Fold this protein.
Amino acid sequence: MNSDRMIYLCELFMNRGKMNQIIPIASDHGGYEMKQFLIERLEDAGYQVKDFGTYSTDSVDYPDMIHPLARAIEKGEYPLGIILCGSGNGAQMTANKHPHVRAALCWNEELAKLAREHNDANILSLPGRFIPFDQAWRMVQLFLTTPFAGGRHTQRVEKIERLD
Ligand code: RB5
């Protein structure tokens, strides 16, 4: 077997768990460029991507893209999603209006990991204008691969939705 074929088979084997995993992603114009970068990285890594827009740098209102993605998470169509806007704030606030959505605004790798481990976050919100693209990609990888730790965190997460 030649080495190209060997590399191809190794990559196929390493990506086998991701092939069926579809990652929904959405942004406004403030997160558009980082979104495009992340889509490329995700696809290179073997994930499928569902792009909820926006599709250019033209100015848009972030809820128009974020609500549809959050609704899909709410309905259980995808386990985890990625949202972006300039600061990450508007996107996170929009997503968190939806029942069963726990969107975490994160600025570094440790926070992205903790959002999964401690909060069972199902959406990662990124500040597209404030962190380096490579750092955002490392955060996305951690977010997608870190399991919820459970234990003492379970009842805390359950209490988030209890308002009485
Ligand atoms: C758009 O200019 C900007 O306000 C938006 O991307 C976001 O930062 C809002 O929270």
Observations:
- Residues 18 and 62 are 28 Å apart (CA to CA).
- Helices lie at 3-14, 32-44, 63-74, 89-95, 109-117, 133-145, 152-160.
- Residues 32-44 form the longest helix (13 residues).
